[in-house]
Amino acid sequence: MKAHRILQIAILLVGLIVASAYGAFGQELTIPDAQIQAGATDTLVLSLDNPAGITSASMEIGYDSSRVTVLDVLLGDDAPWTMFFNGLGSDEISVVMAGAEPATGSNFLKLVVSADSLGDTDIILNSLVWNEGSPAASWVNGTVTVFGLYGDVSGDGTLSPFDASLILQHLVGLSEIPTDQLFIADVSGDGTVSALDASLILQHLVGLIECLPVECEL
């Protein structure tokens, strides 16, 4: 009886491993969050956590077209399939895609997005179907933040010494820059907010440097 029970457990574990490998618990597509400066264009790479067994997909992607515009939809580097889409310029894009072989990695689909007006907008999957409904599909939606000027910590649409002051106040704990706005203060582009960022803003305002480092790299 004990040996029989051990065999049952072993069979169950093998089944779980196989089911996981082939996405029986749902294969997840993730839309990344992004910060894009108004007037700029960026590419959002939708990633697939486990491409095993997936040879076709259909989806509806929704967004606020007053905030951002999807300019193009491209196949990901790991999905050399055939794809068609429709709906550019509207609030929802329909995408269908299929291939003879499964995708080879996580780089699944690309959205080329332009940032039009300031604020946040969710990029959401209104529907997603793998193959003909199996494996199950799940997804993670993303948020695009459209911002104005790098360094404009005050959010008044201009760059001034006051913005440098707000950075210094944040560093010594006299005020706080919201976490989701720290990237605006990071004008050096080094991934941190420091006194260097305040200094660079002041140097830029008097013409000692032509552009802020984070913008020179754009």
Please explain how this structure is put together.
The protein is α+β, with helices and mostly antiparallel strands. It has 2 domains: 26-147, Immunoglobulin-like (Sandwich), CATH 2.60.40.680; 161-216, Type 1 dockerin domain (Orthogonal Bundle), CATH 1.10.1330. Helix content is 23%, strand content 34%. It contains 5 helices and 11 strands. The chain has a 6-stranded mixed sheet with strand order 2-11-9-4-7-6, with no helix packed on it. A 5-stranded mixed sheet has the order 5-8-3-1-10, with no helix packed on it. The chain is elongated. The protein starts with a helix and ends with a helix. Residues 7-25 have low confidence and may be disordered.
- Regions with little confidence, pLDDT below 50 for 5+ residues: 7-25
* SSE string: HEEEEEEEEEEEHHHH
How many DSSP helices? 5
Please, how many domains?
2
Helix content range: 10-25%
Q: What would CATH call the class of the largest domain?
A: Mainly Beta
Mean pLDDT: 88
Strands, total number: 11
Shape: elongated
Radius of gyration: 23 Å
Calculate the terminal CA-CA distance, rounded to whole Å. Answer: 69 Å
Annotated CATH topology of the largest domain: Immunoglobulin-like
Taken as a percent bin, the fraction of beta residues is 25-35%
Q: What does the largest sheet look like?
A: 6 strands, mixed
Q: Structural class of the helix and strand makeup?
A: alpha+beta
Name the strands of the widest sheet in spatial order: 2-11-9-4-7-6
CATH architecture descriptor of the largest domain? Sandwich
